[in-house]
Specification:
The protein has helices spanning 8-16, 19-41, 46-62, 64-77, 88-101, 113-117, 120-126, 136-144, 160-171, 179-196, 222-228, 249-261, 296-300, 316-320, 322-327, 338-349, 366-370, 377-390, 396-409, 412-429, 452-463, and strands at residues 81-85, 106-109, 130-133, 199-202, 206-208, 214-218, 232-238, 242-243, 268-272, 286-292. The protein is an alpha/beta fold. The protein folds into three domains: 1-41 and 315-394, no CATH class; 43-298, Rossmann fold, CATH 3.40.50.10420; 396-463, no CATH class. The strands form two sheets. Strands 1-10-7-4-2-3 form a six-stranded parallel β-sheet, with helices on both faces. A four-stranded mixed β-sheet has the order 8-5-6-9, with helices on both faces. α2 crosses α12 and α16 runs parallel beside α18. The longest helix is centred in the N-terminal third of the chain and has 23 residues, at 19-41. The radius of gyration is 26 Å and the shape is elongated. The termini are far apart. 41% of the residues are buried. Bound molecules: iron/sulfur cluster (SF4). Iron/sulfur cluster is lined by residues 151, 259, 311-317, 340, 370-373, 375, 377. Iron/sulfur cluster binds next to α14.
């Protein structure tokens, strides 16, 4: 599979025939949806929480520079070293330089989508720095040489039997598909890495503009170990991770935990206010916060598309999407798969390259209904489809076909005529007339000799 957004159609064609993949993805997303529903059903105020979340995310994105300044000042006051990176390359260079300055040749890392977006592991490894992923899902993916297929569950496309075979082959252990044993194997191997590695890299779930606090949520405690044990902690975030105030944190922790893992609160919530100090002897000697723009400021200026920046990366829209459930995440060829990926990838990265992604949706609206910050995802997909057409990215044949379709649909007489013509063609040549892009996977519907409209007209005349 070629993991580029431009290959979406070709990838989806292959994945749609992979029944094993489909059942693994459906099982995992189904479990996530059930757990989420149970938790959300216990919260009668859920709709009001969603609206509050939406309003606060809008406030931040509309005033991103002010909140960024406020967060930077507060974090520096706490003793953090804050770096701003306009481009992806700037961010990776900053991170690489920090690692080199402390003469480290390996890093422990917790799960972070922004470092996936930076392709940080590849860059560090090309420059001789060993990267040890410590989240269990990311560890599995790294071992398999793959990329995550889900925002919160990177190895969602793998069954426990797949993981057992992978561990047997790569870690040279006896085959076992007992999750507890497999987890214990990883825990034992990672323990030494945590204790002996001098740099830890993490993402950031939320950054409070008023206190400079960065917050990381998780269930495995690996992120806490990454941020506390090494001498240097590098926290990487994009600009929209900011929330206005520490008081807003409880709302977003609830929205994210419920939507991502069906928990009222994840097992671990780390709130980091700076490096170790005389008052606080725990933690790293240095705390660096690397903040990436990566085209987001520009996106924040767009009256409609800015909404994509409200996302808190819960992954619920992926779980509920019938397209994602059928083909998994790799086919999107983007760091961000599913509905939010189909919205974000064309607008943030490259509309031409990702022109097929807005069409990867049935427009059923389930993604919009489930989003904890009320992003109008399916309408965004529709607007982006229009943009793709307006920019002239569609093929000449499709343009002609749609122009003819439009011309026909604007007149009842022409629709009537087309129906009769179609019926006649099917009568002469048979029903299985090939139509590229349509009939390879579906049968052409049988056309009626007379339209409903003409039958009704005749009935009325007979009654009269
Ligand atoms: S768009 Fe909404 S549902 Fe999808 S990942 Fe982001 S916050 Fe979650």
């Amino acid at each position: 599979m070629n993991l580029r957004a431009s290959q979406f159609k070709a990838n989806a064609r292959i994945a749609a025939q992979d029944t094993g993949l489909r059942s693994k993805v459906k099982k995992a997303t189904g479990t996530a949806l059930t757990k989420r529903k149970q938790t959300v059903d216990e919260l009668p105020e859920w709709e009001s929480l969603r609206q509050q979340g939406h309003d606060i995310r809008k406030e931040v994105v509309d005033n991103i520079d002010r909140y960024l300044r406020s967060f930077t000042d507060a974090a520096r006051l706490n003793g953090a070293i804050v770096h701003h990176a306009n481009e992806h390359n700037d961010a990776t260079k900053i991170i690489y330089d920090i690692i080199r300055r402390v003469s480290a040749n390996s890093v422990v890392k917790s799960k972070s989508m922004i470092t996936e977006e930076l392709h940080l592991n590849r860059m560090l490894e090309e420059n001789g720095i060993r990267v040890i992923e410590t989240d269990l899902g990311e560890y599995i993916i790294q071992l398999a040489g793959e990329t995550p297929s889900h925002i919160t569950a990177p190895a969602l496309h793998k069954s426990k039997e797949d993981i057992a075979r992978l561990f047997q082959e790569k870690l040279n252990i006896s085959y076992t598909d007992d999750p507890a044993v497999l987890t214990a194997v990883v825990r034992k191997r990672l323990r030494d890495e945590f204790l002996n590695t001098r740099v830890g890299i993490s993402g950031v779930n939320f950054a409070c503009a008023d206190t400079g606090t960065i917050t990381i949520i998780e269930n495995e405690a690996n992120a806490r170990l990454c941020t506390v044990l090494p001498e240097v902690h590098i926290a990487v975030m994009s600009i929209e991770k900011i929330i206005p105030s520490f008081d807003d944190l409880s709302l977003f922790l609830k929205l994210l935990s419920c939507s991502a893992s069906g928990q009222r609160m994840t097992s671990y919530v780390s709130m980091i206010n700076g490096p170790r100090s005389s008052h606080n002897p725990d933690g790293p000697r240095q705390l660096h916060v690397v903040i990436l723009d990566g085209g987001r400021r520009q996106l924040a200026k767009h009256p409609a598309w800015k909404e994509a920046l409200y996302c808190i990366r819960c992954g619920a829209c992926l779980n509920v999407c019938p397209v994602y459930q059928s083909v998994g995440g790799h086919v999107y060829g983007s760091v961000y798969p599913g509905p939010i990926g189909s919205v974000l990838t064309p607008t943030l990265f490259d509309m031409k390259e990702a022109q097929d992604l807005p069409f990867a949706s049935s427009l059923c609206g389930a993604c919009t209904d489930i989003c904890p910050v009320k992003i109008d995802l399916h309408h965004h997909l529709l607007w982006e489809r229009r943009e793709v057409v307006d920019r002239g990215y569609k093929s000449f044949t499709e343009k002609i076909a749609m122009a003819v379709w439009r011309w026909m649909m604007l007149s009842a007489g022409r629709v009537e005529f087309a129906g009769r013509l179609g019926w006649l063609i099917q009568k002469v040549f048979g029903k299985n007339i090939p139509a590229p892009g349509w009939t390879p996977r579906r049968r052409f519907p049988a056309l009626a000799r007379r339209s409903f409209r003409s039958i009704m007209k005749r009935e009325k005349n007979n009654d009269g």
